[in-house]
Each structure stands twice: as C-alpha cells, then as structure tokens.
Design goal:
This protein is an alpha+beta fold. It has a domain of 130 residues. The protein is 45% helix and 25% strand. It is built from 8 helices and 9 strands. The chain has an 8-stranded antiparallel beta barrel with strand order 1-2-3-5-6-7-8-9. Strand 5 and strand 6 form a beta hairpin. Keywords: Membrane, Transmembrane, Transmembrane helix.
Length: 280
C-alpha cells in the first residue's frame, strides 16, 4: 500500500467516525417544560391573581347618562304601574261601597211593627179591641235616605183610627144592650161621633208620643227619625251622630254595612239582627 493510499484510507476512516447521538425532539420539548415548571413561582402567580390593588380589565360597556336615565325610567314606570293598580282597586272598592239614594226595608218594618204592637199592649194606653183582622198600627215604613255620605233613617206608621172607632161604637152598642132601652138616650148623648172621636184620639196621641215623633192628624201617621249618621265608604260603616227616643239606635253606635245585589245590609244590630235595604 502506498502512502497516498494510506492517507486516502485514513481520511475515509476519519469521515466514518460515529456521530454524537442527540435525544429525540419530544424528549427535548419535555425537558424544556420541566425546566419551566421548575422556574414557576406559584406564590408570585397567587399574589398576582388576588392582589386587590391590581386593576382588572373588564369587558363591560361603559355606563353613560343615557343608560342611567333608562334604568331610572324603568323603575319609575314599574312603580307607577303598581300605584295605578292599587288606586284602581281602591277606587272600585270606594265606588262599590256607595249607598247613595233612597232605600226601604220591608223586613225591618215588620220587626218594628211587632215591637210597636207589644209596646202598645204593654202600656195599655189605647184599647186594642179592634174588629177581627184589623191591627192598631198599619202601613209601617222604614226609609233610609243617603246624600253626600250622610244617612237619615226614618220610621213611619199609621194608627188605624177608623178601626178603633168601629171598636168604640161596638162597645157602646154592647152596653146599651146590657142596660136596656131606658139608658139608650144616655149612651147616645155621651157617645162620640167619628169626627169627635178622631179629635180626642189625636189629642191623646200627641200627649203620649215622645218629642222626636211627629203626628199628622189628617192621616193619623206618626213619623220619627230613628237616627242620622255619617258614612265611611272605606270602612263601610255608619256612625250614628244623633238618635231618636228609641232604644234600638244610640248616638255613637257604629253600624257595619255590606253592599249586595243592588242593595245593602246593615249587619246584626240589637235584637233586630240584619237589616236589608232595597231601592225605593
């Protein structure tokens, strides 16, 4: 082998020396991640994340006067809507509680008639020996008039003067028969005509009636104001401001009423119970 050939082989051998081995690319990336994790400062990250003094960037839209005005308008509109509903309900209740007008109570009249009959019989001021089927008191009426929340309850009735006179004449004829003809002229001279009987009856009634009662001698009608009162629609009450001589109603009494089906009811009061009123 010549020198030249040996040099040539040496160069070739040198060029065929094994190369330095390198780790694969994935391993290199893993090592880098490991090194970064080692350099990671957890305390620093926590302090950054929860540092109150650090200003955070927010993505919210800026608050403008137009936005504020819109929110305020919405709140005001909601409040006004609620108020309108409340006022509507209150207005309906106030109107529904109105009992303005003229009213009558047939049921109360019947109860008053029974009471007046009992009173007349108990006092025995006027004979009740009437012809069969006739009553001492007729045509009793209970009327309530209400204007501008002022109530006035009137009770009226008519004395059956004609029936009383017929009872009187019947008694005179009965006595005539008992005493005979010789006393007939005496009874005739002292007995009263219908007109004179009415006058005497009227005079007696006027003396006996309480001051709060008025008597019409032409018709025989007695009228009295049972009470006058003030109406509170919100509470649906009638407070009696003044009362007549009857014991049924007294000044200061508060009567509860309830509108119903075109009328109203005064709830249970004294021995009369509920008093129903209908349009006159």
């Amino acid at each position: 082998m010549t020198k030249e050939e040996g040099l040539s082989l040496g160069d070739t051998a040198h060029s065929l020396k094994p190369r330095e081995t390198r780790p694969p690319r994935a391993s290199i990336e893993g090592n880098r991640a490991t090194n970064k994790f080692r350099e990671f400062d957890a305390d620093r990250v926590v302090s950054v994340q929860f540092n109150p003094s650090q200003k955070m960037n927010e993505s919210k839209a800026p608050v403008t006067s137009k936005n504020i005005l819109g929110m305020v308008s919405g709140v005001i509109a909601a409040i006004l809507t609620i108020l309108l509903i409340v006022f509507a309900v209150m207005g309906y209740r106030y109107q529904a509680a109105s009992i303005e007008g003229d009213w009558i109570s047939p049921t109360f009249s019947e109860k008053m008639l029974a009471t007046l009959k009992d009173t007349a019989n108990a006092k025995q001021k006027i004979s009740n020996a009437l012809p069969q089927g006739q009553n001492l008191i007729t045509d009793i009426n209970t009327a309530m008039s209400i204007t501008d929340n002022k109530a006035r309850l009137e009770v009226s009735f008519i004395y059956n003067r004609k029936g009383l006179y017929e009872a009187y004449k019947s008694r005179v004829n009965e006595l005539k028969g008992q005493y005979g003809e010789e006393f007939s002229e005496v009874f005739d001279s002292y007995s009263l005509s219908e007109k004179d009987y009415y006058k005497q009856f009227d005079s007696t009634i006027k003396k006996e009636l309480p001051k709060s009662y008025t008597y019409d001698s032409k018709t025989g009608q007695v009228t009295t104001t049972a009470f006058m009162g003030d109406i509170n629609r919100w509470d649906q009450t009638i407070t009696i401001a003044s009362a007549g001589d009857s014991d049924v109603f007294k000044k200061g009494d508060v009567l509860d009423y309830t509108p119903n089906n075109g009328g109203f009811v005064i709830k249970a009061h004294s021995e009369f119970g509920d008093i129903n009123f209908t349009r006159k």
